[in-house]
User: Fold this.
Amino acid sequence: QVQLVESGGGLVQAGGSLRLSCSASGRTFDIYDIGWFRQAPGKEREVVAAITWSGGSTRYADSVKGRFIISRNDPKNTMDLQMNSLKPEDMAVYYCAAKASPASWGYWGQGSQVTVSS
Assistant:
């Protein structure tokens, strides 16, 4: 099993920045990829950014490219999402997730609210 605990998030004005962190514990050696999803009210959950557990490869949703940066801190088993130039449409609950197999995101954090005021 892998446990994921998120921190960060909160309220920010449009154009501002926030940082989310995710701490992984347990069978972290089973993790292939780790990333962030978000879900806004009335919308489906969508992937925001992901990174290989080794940290060698990143990918982003088109809507956040150039504004968000995902990174890994290997010794600490943590992953961060630096969110810059936030827009009201970025407002959502953000979830940390991990893949323990290539096929599915099987582990999830509890979610962290990000609110962007216009």
Summary: The CA atoms of residues 2 and 26 lie 5 Å apart. The two ends are 40 Å apart (CA to CA). The chain is about 0% helix and 55% strand.
